[in-house]
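Appendix C: a fully annotated inverse folding record. The material below is reproduced so that readers can follow the format used throughout the book. The structure is listed first as tokens, followed by the designed sequence.
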């Protein structure tokens, strides 16, 4: 385990709330692990290809008989899987797009979840089990428990399934909500709540990054 794996996926480069949270995490990380390596993928800047037929079949066909497309697709999956398996900690920032995650993040998840490598079954332990993962999320609306549209939120329930249930990682989820207040007409009365949510999320992010770096330093 050698690095922090940092995934961003907001399509926006300036003024992204999810990337602002990730930057706060990275700042605390740099202070706590000054020599720690980081692998950063900004999928909003450089998307990775969707998993296609060559990528899926590359997992089941011996390399000697793979087509050039299968070889290339299999090599990409292997590189991304190695980045995940080699991470001592993972931080993923994501906005809500149309009530779920951006397709760029889904493409990364489809590439890295590989049976027998990152996905295990039955009693087989997952190689990522217990490692810290932090999700830093930004939602334009409000989806807190009891909110009228709570059940429209398919971001953190889905990501919890991936990182907590399937990979067994030690997961913390931090969300800035109502980020569209002040930008969208009709949300004016929510501006104060939006600012508070963002400030709380920034504080929680710094706290989480501090805990993760302290735990890793203590284990070293
Ligand atoms: C294409 C697109 C779709 C969006 N869909 C939703 C949505 O379904 N629900 C919501 O609450 N906000 C939605 N938003 C607002 C974003 O979740 C919000 O602006 C968030 O802060 C974006 O993250 P970022 O600031 O890191 O870019 C959407 C924004 C975009 C650009």
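Designed amino acids, in order:
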């Amino acid at each position: 385990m050698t690095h922090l794996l940092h995934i961003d996926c907001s399509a926006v480069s300036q003024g992204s709330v999810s990337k602002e949270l990730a930057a706060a995490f990275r700042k605390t990380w740099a202070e706590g692990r000054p020599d720690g390596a980081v692998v950063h993928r900004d999928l909003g800047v450089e998307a990775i290809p969707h998993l296609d037929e060559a990528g899926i079949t590359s997992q089941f066909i011996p390399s000697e008989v793979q087509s050039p497309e299968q070889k290339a697709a299999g090599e990409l999956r292997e590189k991304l899987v190695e980045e995940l398996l080699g991470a001592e900690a993972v931080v993923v920032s994501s906005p809500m797009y149309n009530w779920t995650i951006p397709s760029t993040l889904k493409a990364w998840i489809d590439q890295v979840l590989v049976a027998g490598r990152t996905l295990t079954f039955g009693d087989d332990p997952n190689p990522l089990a217990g490692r810290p993962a932090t999700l830093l999320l930004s939602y334009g609306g409000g989806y807190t428990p009891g909110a009228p549209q709570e059940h429209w939120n398919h971001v953190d329930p889905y990501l919890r399934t991936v990182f907590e249930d399937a990979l067994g990682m030690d997961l913390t989820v931090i969300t800035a909500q109502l980020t569209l207040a002040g930008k969208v007409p009709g949300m004016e009365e929510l501006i104060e709540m939006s600012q508070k949510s963002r400030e709380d999320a920034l504080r929680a992010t710094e706290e989480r990054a501090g805990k993760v770096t302290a735990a890793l330093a203590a284990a070293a």
